[in-house]
Task: inverse folding
């Protein structure tokens, strides 16, 4: 009745070879990887534990028995899928075999016997584990095995047919196994069988798809994925398991230089352990591109806690480690040791997560546990019911979210009349640069989309920084909550201000004025500039002398046409009339400025071009009595023009404001655009990427001279503008961490030591190809931004146009989330995004442009 | 040479009696408790551990030896203070005695012997532990002991005089001991020896003060406080230790009703375990006041990790639990088990926290460990050096912060010329409503101040909610980071919107429009109101028909004089001229409204009074073509007047905006002021307390009718106003948690089931007394706010006045942090603050008013 299969027996490459494979794929092939879907069609849970040996496998076994042997509801038959991605101590230990054996016994004991088909398979193992399995049965020569992991494909089957009922199934799978009974990272290192995180998750994803999708019409399925050791025990690559299962990391490194260096090559083969190490080694050897793709992979879980003395602490800490990585824990299970550990646990969890207590587990190894499982029957039944109903609730909520959102949200910049329910994106989570998106159509699943809006121009962290920021946010909220700023000092605010003045403000700024967002930073900057100008031109003195309320002086700004500095009225007054300032939007807008049409730079037909506005030839502008206002946006203003304008203003004692809300912190490839323009302002505004893109915070930096114009002996002369959350601790902590992270070559692969600019992210050849495409009018690629204007006429062009919608819908199917600005579309990444990912985005965009053009051609012809 | 003392032997009350004691104090005595200082004069560290039995005491022992036996620097002698607040398994286990014994042996072994004085004392123990200690020696009759903790005061001394050098000291103290070797909460329950968190920390604080302060001039001191079990193991009250040592909780309950109920009384005596439980029991029996004072108590720590299989996970999780509570961990120490656990730990910690590895600890109980300590000598030396230099760095940083802040911060609303360095407050942390403030003068220490500014009107959480929010912030940052809002939906945003519409928007609002702060929420509200008004009055149709850019229609708002709606220009245009809008501050301000002088309500000489402005008698206002604008601030506007105004506007189809940025979410005692006014708006703005006061977020709620005026087939008709972080996940998660927390009687002691208003927080009698004080002009006490205007004339009155400064400086010495609005001062608490704390604040304020008045009298007379 028991069958032992051994399928193919080919050697599998080590991580190093995998890396080469990825590298090969990344430079030669133009097929970007497909989004990795996590099926949602059946309830699937991780089984976590706060320590080793607390009975995860007993819980899985109890669950499988409870699920398979409970009376069927509407379904004909059932399937329990048990996946054990990482197993050490194999073959003497095998959790999947334990479950398989126990269920085999259970099913035989049952009266009437259940018609059950059972299987247990082990897919890959280390060479030494494979030897130890196979030498007994096959006496295969040792030379058959190379290094790295072995394609074991061991399979045991037990067809336990009962009476003619429909056949239920137990499918147990161990994905990767090692021989030594130590932590997977050690076993992997010692047995030269290192497996990358991406390989674990890709294999897991494959097993999930195959296991869950095949019979979903006629079968009720419950799936558990059992982790190894504790929640933060390292996996085979050295990544902590709670990090490993949160995301897929696909590493690719340019190893060409390493190829030539055989010493390094073999060194890596031996030493390779943690991703971190690899990065360091690679970094030392080659200046070539390296990076990771992080994709979210977040399953809800059960935590097996610790009922022993000291176990409350470990259980709570493990729970917190999972929460700190964005996991949901739906139940805690622990063994009774007579210490009623469940009472403080329930109190801690405020009864929001159920805590279930299992009877004491017999310690005698000869005990077959049958009695214990009988005793635990009700507990496992409850646990199973909790899992099934949590699944139903989750699916229902995901399903309802688009409708509810459409009913109660009022999205900014959105014509609700034009947003059908099915186009609303349900974001289940994000990891690094990627959204996890609920996909209802076809097979219900969670799929990935690269957030090419950089979550609306704010986004910076890769997955590693996101995890660090999460911990920092927890720490800062616990340590400070929020504390008011004026006349106080606390560590995050001070560190943030120090880093700002030593970073983007270096060489000119002396003071940091915090606020909440770009608009408020701009309004504050305007107030500063007005005061400075008034001081420098004797207006203030006049005002104070005459103490007059008459506002005879009309101060205006000098700003650039097409510029945009935020949505509050003050910020709007400093921008030229546009769709945003019309009577429809803001009846109070007057536009208090002189708005210059600047020359812009762009790429068209593979060549860089410069637009020259007419006035630049025609007239001379009198800059007196005006304030210059820097600009950003998707038009790249000629830097030379900007520098000359700044110099001219300085000559006329007109304070210069740089609006770096969008452009600052590497958005355009430099930490500050002062480095691009080659000149510095008197005042500059920062927001968005300042906090790494996780939390609102803005800052207006100023020179000592600007600050001095507010100093005096009266409070009324001080700058009386502020917001409750000025310099709030969490924002400042996020900013401090992100500023350091982005500029450190140890943490940001795009930083080259000693250089002021990020490495080139957008493949020049591809950008040129796109700029020559007939559907494209112009392209601008700089730093983390690649924007393109589509050829469009009449109502198809401009901000209100919906012209790009169909193109962007197609790109979402490719796993790229973009948002149009009328007929302008853009790809935006973070300062740490690898050039390879950018290249993949460009390839996907180019392909869809081809399709788009064909359709548009047809429309034009037809 | 060994002495055994036994001092007094009085029975000590159980927790229940302590509670009664507190209760007594809280209603009858008018002496508020003194702030609890944590001395900073000497390095003091917590010793944490990720599990039991990992060698915390060995680490303490090695440290003490390394510190005491190292060559002295500039100091004559040294003192190592070892505190063990919680000991179970006593007397057979006593960590302080272990350390005492080991050091006794070490000092004898030493050549030349060190002149060392050693002592070990145990202050309180459970009765059964005391019996077990004392019955041997004293054969004391069992009847001598009552229930509760026993004042054991056991003391062992070893005067180990060496050659005539100055005497160094080892002082070991166990604060509370229980007999059973189980978790402290269990031991305390089983031995009827429950000790409250506040008692543990007050005793600890006392021991620290006595141990650190006495010899600080002539001695170098190092102090460690060793915890029991793992970081999250429960203490005797059931509170997790990582929570217990973070804050002092002083419980006080009104037990008068319970007194009459002997059944409940005895029930409590037996069942009393966790604070939570007590609250539930109390809550069920009495509607009287109960609550806690939370005060920060945050020492840096060493984490003793786990070198065993599975230990990486436990160590990392324990570290994360500590970070999640705002603790700093300066080093991790673990025992070598041959598994190189330190490698993944260092990788996880990114080398920012050192990881030290101790040699394997001999398991044989007969081993005296002398050899092991010799082997570990260098490790402990390094650890000691890390601790001493981290201390020096910390003190230096705290010392420098005020100066640095003065140099690089630009505080809002602050005349920097008037802020001397010594008045700047260095906030080391906050816990619940209290700041931890660095005090440099006298003895360097960390002291507590109640944040009576409610961190500038935003603050809400008590310490428990703060811990929950910290975990939620970590979770949300890990799960979502930030994801852009338009056309998307994600759980925190949806839940937040649902709660808003079912809470403050209930009965009228249908849509939630998110932004960043009160100002932006107001600007958005104005845009909504303009559009709605334009639709209702045919202006929009005219505009669209003629498609004219001419702005012939001048829209104005109708608002209240003295109102304040934020600092951005749009929000300012809707307020009457004031110091904030002068040419000095905002040259673009024009003030586009009709500003009504409203009648206000206040208390004076113990009576409520109403001010009636002249115009109310004189003229009739034409409300046509205007928009009403609600107001807040420290003037309480007559609710009847407001309701009539709202009705009048509605009759004229003028949209009504409620500015609830300050007043919303229980600030004035109701979740929304709609409940106070008895009418609803068309649009309302919320911010500040919306997130519980930890992170910026704002929302503008609107009716369906308002929303509909933006719906159409063109994007240009949509509301084109937004901010990058609109509905950011962390803000929405904080808001969802806080909204639920504040309104739930289970979590907010001030909520009475079925009632719309918070219980009265400000003692009426005291408020009346203050309102009758000669230094006071008027008082307004409502909800969480108690504001008073000081009698002041000429330049002493108004916003620019510094009149209140000296009064507020004195209050800071009493542990109350306030900030003036000119000659108006206020006390502000959170929705969960207990009335007893408010009463203490009033008492402190009243006392200082007396002093203040005496001084002012002298000035007037002199």
Result:
């Amino acid at each position: 009745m028991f069958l032992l299969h051994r399928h193919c027996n080919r050697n599998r490459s080590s991580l190093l070879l995998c890396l080469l494979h990825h590298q090969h794929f990344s430079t030669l092939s133009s097929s970007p990887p497909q989004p990795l879907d996590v099926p949602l069609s059946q309830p699937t849970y991780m089984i976590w534990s706060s320590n080793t040996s607390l009975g995860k496998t007993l819980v899985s076994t109890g669950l499988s028995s409870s699920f398979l042997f409970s009376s069927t509801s509407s379904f004909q038959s059932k399937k329990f899928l048990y996946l054990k991605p990482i197993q050490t101590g194999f073959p003497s230990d095998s959790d999947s075999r334990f479950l398989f054996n126990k269920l085999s016994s259970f099913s035989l004991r049952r009266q009437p016997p259940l018609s059950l088909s059972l299987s247990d398979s082990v897919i890959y193992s280390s060479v030494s584990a494979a030897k130890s399995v196979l030498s007994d049965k096959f006496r295969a020569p040792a030379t058959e095995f190379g290094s790295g992991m072995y394609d074991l494909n061991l399979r045991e089957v037990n067809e336990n047919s009962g009476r003619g009922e429909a056949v239920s199934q137990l499918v147990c799978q161990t994905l990767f196994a090692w021989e030594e009974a130590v932590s997977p990272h050690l076993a992997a290192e010692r047995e030269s069988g290192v497996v990358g995180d991406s390989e674990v998750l890709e294999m897991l994803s494959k097993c999930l798809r195959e296991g869950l999708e095949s019979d979903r019409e006629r079968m009720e399925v419950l799936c558990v994925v059992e982790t190894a050791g504790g929640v933060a025990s390292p996996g085979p690559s050295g990544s902590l398991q709670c990090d490993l299962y949160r995301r897929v990391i696909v590493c690719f490194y340019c190893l060409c230089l390493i190829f030539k260096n055989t010493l390094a090559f073999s060194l890596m083969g031996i030493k390779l352990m943690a991703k971190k190490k690899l990065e360091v080694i690679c970094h030392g050897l080659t200046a070539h591109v390296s990076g990771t793709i992080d994709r979210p992979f977040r399953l809800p879980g059960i935590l097996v806690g610790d009922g022993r003395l000291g176990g409350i602490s470990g259980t709570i800490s493990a729970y917190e480690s999972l929460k700190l990585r964005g996991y949901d824990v739906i139940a805690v299970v622990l063994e009774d040791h007579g210490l009623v550990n469940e009472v403080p646990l329930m109190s801690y969890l405020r009864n929001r997560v159920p805590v279930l207590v299992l009877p004491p587990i017999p310690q005698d190894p000869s005990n077959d546990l049958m009695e214990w499982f009988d005793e635990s029957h009700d507990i496992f039944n409850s646990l199973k019911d909790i899992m099934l109903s949590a699944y139903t609730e989750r699916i229902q909520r995901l399903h309802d979210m688009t409708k509810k959102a459409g009913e109660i949200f009022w999205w900014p910049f959105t014509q609700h009349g034009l947003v059908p329910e099915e186009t609303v994106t349900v974001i289940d989570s994000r990891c690094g640069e990627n959204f996890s998106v609920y996909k209802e159509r076809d097979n219900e699943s969670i799929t990935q989309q690269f957030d090419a809006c950089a979550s609306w121009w704010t986004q910076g962290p890769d997955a590693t920084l996101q995890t660090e920021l999460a911990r920092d946010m927890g720490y800062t909220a616990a340590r400070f909550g929020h504390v008011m700023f004026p006349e106080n000092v606390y560590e995050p605010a001070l560190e943030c201000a120090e880093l700002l003045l030593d970073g983007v403000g270096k060489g000119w700024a002396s003071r940091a004025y915090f606020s909440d967002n770009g608009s408020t930073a701009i309004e504050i900057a305007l107030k500063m500039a007005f005061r400075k100008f008034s001081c420098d031109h004797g207006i203030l003195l006049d005002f104070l002398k005459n103490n007059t309320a008459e506002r005879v002086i009309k101060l205006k700004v000098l700003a650039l046409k097409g510029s945009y500095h935020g949505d509050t009225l003050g910020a709007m007054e400093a921008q030229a009339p546009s769709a945003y300032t019309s009577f429809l939007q803001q009846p109070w807008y007057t536009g208090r400025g002189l708005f210059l049409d600047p020359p812009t730079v762009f790429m068209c037909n593979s060549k860089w071009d410069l637009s020259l506005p007419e006035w630049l030839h025609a007239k001379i502008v009198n800059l007196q009595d005006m304030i210059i206002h820097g600009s950003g946006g998707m038009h790249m203003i000629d830097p030379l023009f900007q520098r000359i304008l700044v110099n001219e203003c300085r000559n006329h004692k007109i304070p210069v404001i740089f609006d770096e809300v969008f452009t600052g912190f590497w958005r355009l490839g430099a930490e500050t655009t002062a480095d691009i323009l080659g000149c510095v302002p008197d005042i500059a505004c920062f927001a968005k990427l300042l906090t790494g893109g996780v939390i609102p915070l803005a800052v207006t930096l100023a020179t000592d001279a600007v600050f001095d114009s507010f100093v005096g002996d009266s409070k009324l002369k001080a700058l009386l503008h502020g917001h409750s959350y000025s310099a709030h601790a969490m924002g400042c902590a996020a900013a401090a961490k992100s500023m350091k992270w982005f500029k450190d070559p140890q943490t940001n692969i795009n930083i080259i030591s000693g250089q002021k600019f990020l490495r080139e992210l957008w493949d020049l050849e591809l950008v040129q190809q796109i700029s020559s495409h007939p559907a494209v009018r112009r392209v601008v690629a700089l730093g983390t931004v690649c924007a393109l204007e589509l050829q469009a006429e009449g109502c198809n062009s401009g901000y209100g146009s919906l012209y790009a919608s169909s193109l962007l819908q197609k790109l979402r199917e490719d796993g790229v989330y973009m948002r149009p600005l009328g007929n302008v579309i853009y790809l935006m990444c973070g300062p740490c995004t690898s050039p390879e990912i950018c290249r993949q985005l460009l390839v996907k965009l180019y392909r869809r442009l081809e399709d788009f053009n064909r359709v548009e051609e047809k429309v034009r012809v037809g």
Remarks:
- Chain A has 28 helices and 32 strands.
- Chain A has a mean pLDDT of 84.
